[in-house]
Write a structure and sequence with these properties.
Layout (H helix, E strand, L loop, with lengths): L4 E3 H10 L4 H9 L2 E3 L2 E3 L14 H18 L3 H20 L3 H18 L17
Antiparallel strand pairs: 1-3, 2-3
Helix pairs in contact: 1-3, 3-4, 4-5
Length: 133
């Protein structure tokens, strides 16, 4: 197994597209690992600041991370892992009342459908479903 990471330049581009303020970007990167032009997820990352508390920005950072991970995915398993992470953020955003983030993930999903062929976040990419006896 490898640590999940993304190219720093590609991630920066995603963060810009998701309109994440620089102070949130710097906090996120500093709480993870930056190495050889990549941002690696820390296993125990959490926001322990007292001033960076906007849920919209934290959801956007995570969406940007997983969009970048999806773009870099080199096999179907990595693609499914990234899609599942984006699906989770989609439903968390809805539960937290972050409609903008939910709508942006839904639009990303729609635009990338030709690549992943999963019609919506409530559909599974798993092709073999278990049978119950």
């Amino acid at each position: 197994m490898t640590i999940i990471s993304v190219d720093k330049t590609a991630f920066a581009s995603e963060l810009n597209a998701w309109r994440v303020p620089m102070n949130y970007v710097l906090a996120f990167v500093s709480k993870n690992t930056e190495k050889a032009g990549r941002v690696l997820l820390h296993p125990f990352f959490f926001n322990d600041t007292e001033h960076l508390t906007n849920p919209r920005h934290w959801l956007a950072i995570n969406a940007a991370m997983w969009c970048a991970a999806y773009r870099e995915a080199e096999n179907k398993e990595a693609q499914i892992e990234a899609l599942a992470s984006l699906r989770t953020l989609f439903y968390i955003a809805g539960g937290l009342g972050q409609g903008e983030i939910k709508a942006l993930i839904q639009e990303w999903w729609r635009q990338t459908y030709p690549l992943h062929k999963v019609p919506a976040p409530n559909h599974s990419a798993v092709t073999n479903t278990p049978t119950f006896h």
